[in-house]
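Lab meeting, action items carried over

1. Structure of the four-component assembly. Owner: GW. Status: complete.
Input record:
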Amino acid sequence: MTDQALSPPVDAVEVSYEELCGALAAKNLSPLWKVNRELMPLEHRSSTLPWLWRWRSLLPMARRCGELITIDRGGDRRVLALANPGLQGRPYTSTTLWGAIQYLGPHESAPAHRHTPNAIRFVIEGEGVWTTVNGDACDMLPGDLILTPSWHWHDHNNSADRPMLWFDGLDLPLVGVLEAVFFELYPDETQPVVSRNLSELLYGKGIAPHEPRPGSVRDGSAGTARAPAGGLASPLLRYPYTTTDAQLEAMLAGTRSDVATVHFVNPANGRSALPTLGLSMVRLLAGAATAPVRRAGSSIVVVFRGSGYTVMNGTRFDWGEKDIFVVPSWVAAEHHALERSDLFVTSDRPVLEALGLYREEMLDEEQSVSARFVPL
Amino acid sequence: MTDQALSPPVDAVEVSYEELCGALAAKNLSPLWKVNRELMPLEHRSSTLPWLWRWRSLLPMARRCGELITIDRGGDRRVLALANPGLQGRPYTSTTLWGAIQYLGPHESAPAHRHTPNAIRFVIEGEGVWTTVNGDACDMLPGDLILTPSWHWHDHNNSADRPMLWFDGLDLPLVGVLEAVFFELYPDETQPVVSRNLSELLYGKGIAPHEPRPGSVRDGSAGTARAPAGGLASPLLRYPYTTTDAQLEAMLAGTRSDVATVHFVNPANGRSALPTLGLSMVRLLAGAATAPVRRAGSSIVVVFRGSGYTVMNGTRFDWGEKDIFVVPSWVAAEHHALERSDLFVTSDRPVLEALGLYREEMLDEEQSVSARFVPL
Amino acid sequence: MTDQALSPPVDAVEVSYEELCGALAAKNLSPLWKVNRELMPLEHRSSTLPWLWRWRSLLPMARRCGELITIDRGGDRRVLALANPGLQGRPYTSTTLWGAIQYLGPHESAPAHRHTPNAIRFVIEGEGVWTTVNGDACDMLPGDLILTPSWHWHDHNNSADRPMLWFDGLDLPLVGVLEAVFFELYPDETQPVVSRNLSELLYGKGIAPHEPRPGSVRDGSAGTARAPAGGLASPLLRYPYTTTDAQLEAMLAGTRSDVATVHFVNPANGRSALPTLGLSMVRLLAGAATAPVRRAGSSIVVVFRGSGYTVMNGTRFDWGEKDIFVVPSWVAAEHHALERSDLFVTSDRPVLEALGLYREEMLDEEQSVSARFVPL
Amino acid sequence: MTDQALSPPVDAVEVSYEELCGALAAKNLSPLWKVNRELMPLEHRSSTLPWLWRWRSLLPMARRCGELITIDRGGDRRVLALANPGLQGRPYTSTTLWGAIQYLGPHESAPAHRHTPNAIRFVIEGEGVWTTVNGDACDMLPGDLILTPSWHWHDHNNSADRPMLWFDGLDLPLVGVLEAVFFELYPDETQPVVSRNLSELLYGKGIAPHEPRPGSVRDGSAGTARAPAGGLASPLLRYPYTTTDAQLEAMLAGTRSDVATVHFVNPANGRSALPTLGLSMVRLLAGAATAPVRRAGSSIVVVFRGSGYTVMNGTRFDWGEKDIFVVPSWVAAEHHALERSDLFVTSDRPVLEALGLYREEMLDEEQSVSARFVPL
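Predicted assembly:
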């Protein structure tokens, strides 16, 4: 081999500890013993900080962006990312989750593209907007959840005279780490609309329009080939708030509880609607609270309606309508509602479960609240 | 071994062919070569015959039974089984499926019991009846589908002044062959009703009240134990016709087709609502037809609404509202609607799929109709 | 509708109970109340009887068949089915399982065919035989298990000067009830042999020659299409006794137990090697016994080596080498080894599990043996 | 809310673009439009660089570490991480994979601990070492693969007079990003050894010691509770090279190919032995080559035996015995063997597949080699 001459003779590394460390670095080798306890600490550590963004701060900034930034100037989306202050300037809400506010002005369109990161849109304010996903125009009303799964074409369109704001949740930080980000622009500005809320018509009532997949792995060797059962992402792309609201009411009434949770699932397999994002809505009646728990994996909470507070590792975060906060991995958290509240939660839990890394711990006693979060 | 003396000496079987056959029978041995082509025929054979039962015959008989047979006298259910004439007197509609009409008089109750065979109830006529399934009272209106899955307590109750009739579909013939029939009477006449249509409230809107099961086999070794994800049967017990109807309409409108099919699935896993029974509703607009196909496994069709005919292996079976017919395994079948029609189909397809035995064949040309079925 | 005139007027059925019963039969309707307790008995019932076939009876009969029946005369296989005396003359060992002895004379071949019922061959005596399965010649030595899964071409060939006998286990009774029996003759007498024990080379060491299937349902929508993960049946077709024996020894040594069981599984998914048949080998050391248990579903036990007895519902069945017996559904059974014994077990358990019908009950106390089985 | 006064009035943000950017940063908001094309580039980008570490550089450094670093001083492991030069000083081989050389001196023990990251050990040099995993001592010989799955206790022990070196592969970078790293020291220095290679005895022959899991999701509602089928990680902890070698030879002979690949799978489910790591061995005969392909996700290749070269994105990386190189995500790669070679591959592919993010592209033509890699 021709490069042999370039390599140092073996005995050249009979060196001191300091020289060894230098030689290691020169060869792109890194001694574990220097970073051992940092990589595998005896107590769980999280870079992600518990944090809360107030709507009354977000809204005027988003509006001002609407004035100053055109969709053209701003790339193809006008988005303010919720950048966790623990993540050293990266525009991520947690190490795995991207949370942001997207602002679409009157009669604007955000052009069509697709990417491998999965995304969800949860509508906070406005109406008259639809997102076209692979040709199916999905209406967006406050409280609606719209999926734009991995590698699905999507564009957003506002036909109204008012701007619209929604929450964007993506698995972008995780897909970035996996070095699996692929992106493509659609040939035209927007896709042709071939149907309107069709996925909801087909999949939104809990009975399937297509043959359910077999109970076992696949059809027998004797079977004729049939259409594939589809991918990991939900064929249902729109979960309207009217349905969410009705189900939560029914659950509260039916179970006589003061907290109810619905999970947005893929009707084709009963799993999470997206393979990387857990999506749910928690309704708490006035005075209700959830038990303190800590979980591996992080989540972003959008306060759709109501007010209350969440205690995270002993700090109280007061929240009102449209505020957004993040619960980092393994941080003890409990929610308290001062009035009837709806919390929309986006998490990375399906990832941890799929990889055998999920764990949770119910905490017996409410931790004392020793501090109160005051945003900068 | 003490019974050695009872056994014939080896050379005792140096016998003629005829003597050998006798000796074999005496030892409970059966020569394959005598039944070879019967057990494994070169062409597929089905004992189950294509057959149709007319409602105008069924109804008066069911009424007369209502007069003559008390629930007491009639065991705990007043049921007329659709006995396929090909099955030598056994009360089964096909070799795997039990189809029947159940009649519940005004102010009658059919007492609570449970059994391992799975059952469904599809309401044909009447109202004011509910079936309590493990404590959850499920209302029964025409076109509604009610599940009473394996080993779930159930009783039927009619609070109205009119009798009620519904279709019973069970996997009883199959479970019988598996010698897995277990049955138990409830201690009391009926169960206490602890909720009303609760399963529908919880599971009927396509968003899950409980944490979806992980995408992979099970939670990680690091995970804390959590509640099991449930059994094979659907937690949703009631599929109201109002929903079925709305979805079919939406599908026809959304896809601009003249045939639409919904499958009743288990929302927890996207598979068939029951592990042994495939359940679907087919809507055909006037003049529409399905392509000829033959499938391994049998199905029973209840004409909920409309009129038309089905060609099975070249024989035309005319049907009208509430008629019931059976499509045997591997019989070529095609449906033609003369007016807008709803066909409720119960099949054994999930069984064949789970065991790798399902196959189907699309037939290119409509077979000529060479005969017309005339019931005896 | 033209056949209306043929139908009796409704009031014609205002008849007596006896007349009603006749009218029902004429219309292919069967009243449940007459057969209620027979179909759903309060105590579990099984038609299949516990039974045992002695090798010293089987062997001379099989030999005599070898002399009297040519493969030509005898259809394409020379097989003696173990016909359970509880099944009214049907040639089945239980309601779901076919058990039989197949005899292949010196230099004979059983011609190639395929069928949807799954089959296994467990070698009892002889050597020099191979079964070609879809082109792969699988050697057959005593104690070897050979699979001929659903719809796989197979022929048996004896190149030796001695006859060979093996046990055939099939799901034929079940597939027959499902009316899913399909059969096809191979164009030639035998298949060309394209490989020899290749499946064993590829799949027999617990590490996979092909990419393991993804942990989740299927690859993502972004993924390129790849080869299907295969069917329900094992790609491993031969499980040699040398491996079975070595593993059983290792387990007994490693766990210091006196009973060890191995299950023959599909290495591609860890499930049973065939979707309809459970297959295992139980080794008991001299004096060892299994705890009494009753299980839904039946099984056939081939005594490969050793001697002992099995108590079934209070009757003792003594067994020696190569005897075969059947354990019916829900019959309490316990095995006792007088010397080191290997029991090869074929069951229908995967079927009951796939359909949610499996149950078992461990019995605390050994039931008293009140009778001893003496074959006719 | 008390902190309301701290928040700026809405109209205070009627500011210039520059002021807005400052205000956004102050509120932990990050504008997407500045990083749009960096986060979602039009062409796929990978920080991980193709890289190769030569054994003749690694070995003397590892030896010198053995002299200078005690296990005590070095934390609990003496490990040199292969630090990819594209990852800005982080000690990771790719963004998801940790690759390293571990050196254990004569008569040393690396103390027992457990952590949520999954790890594998692939033995490069030495003998007389075993790793105890949850009480089962697994022997380590060159070419053996040993699993220490997530949250399993493990310690390494060298009873020989020679040092030992092996390759460590972990999913630590990924689990770190998921903020799911948990770590625990065992109370004692090492675990008691309760068995020796037991997992191999029980699970290493492709037939299962325990009841295979049901084909469908879980047992029926009627079933009695049974032991859980286990976690995501393989119960087989040791894959000896003797088996790997024999299978590769059989595959080459049986398929008459010049390249064969075995995948190390979990015998309980046929999936990858660990939920986060793909593990395989590729054998190339002299002169053989693999087709060029690029795949989402990265892999680390340990040259166990042989020599050859790998072309990655047009650069040729020559390799010899025990060299280690990394193939980054979406880098076109093809392997060429100059002599018979065994390549041990650790990848993150199961993660990408589980999340629906896996894709690959076969490249038709070999890319021209325009450069040759010369390590610094």
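2. GW to write a short summary for the group page. Key points so far: Chain A has one domain: 51-204+234-372. Chain A has seven helices and 26 strands.
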